[in-house]
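Hi there,

I know you've been waiting on this one. I reran it after we fixed the sequence typo, so this is the corrected version. Both the input and the resulting structure follow.
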Amino acid sequence: MQSDSNLFLGERISNARMVKGFSQKQLAALVGVNKSSIENWETDRIGPRANRLNQLAGILGVPVAWLLSGEESSSEIDLPLQDETMMLRNKLDAAESMLKQLGDIIKDIRQQSNIIQRDFDEESI
């Protein structure tokens, strides 16, 4: 995001929310607060607590430093978006399921191999 040091925190929250296409109600649901909290933050009546500020930055895809000061911070790492986090969780779940299936296949092959070896050993006697 561009440098917006001349804006207040509330204006930066509001601008970032609108860029993402979220309504105040939608952002409130994502952050886990009431819509009135978003309204209060955006009008600078009150500011978000540190944990909520981190959530906002991640959801809005902006650095915390930008929310606080309007300046970019090259050393800050953006938090993943909630959609990205869900996508990664789904991929991990799918990989875990495939590993379980692969384990079952290996177990079945070992059992079949043991049966074949046993039958071969019995015929050799």
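Quick highlight: The mean pLDDT is 85.

Best,
R. S.
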